[in-house]
Amino acid sequence: MATIAVAGGTGGVGKTFVEILEQQNKFRVVVLSRGAPKKEDTSNTVHLQIDYEDVSAMTKQLEQYNVHTIISAIGLISEETSKSQLNLIEAADKSKSTARFIPSEYSFIQTADLLAIDPSIQFWLDAANLLKASSLEYTRVIPGFFMDYWGMPHVKTNLQPYSFGIDISSRKAAIPGDGNDVICMTYTYDMAHYIIKALDLDEWPEFSVVVGDQVTYNQILAMAEEILGEKFDVTYDGIDQIEKGNVTNPPMPSDLGYSEEELTEVTALVSRLVINGVFDLPKENRLNALFPEVNPITMKELLEKSWRRTEPHLE
Ligand SMILES: NC(=O)c1ccc[n+]([C@@H]2O[C@H](COP(=O)([O-])OP(=O)(O)OC[C@H]3O[C@@H](n4cnc5c(N)ncnc54)[C@H](OP(=O)(O)O)[C@@H]3O)[C@@H](O)[C@H]2O)c1
Question: Which of 49, 62, 210, 230 has its C-alpha lying 20 to 30 A from 91's C-alpha?
Answer without folding.
Answer: 210
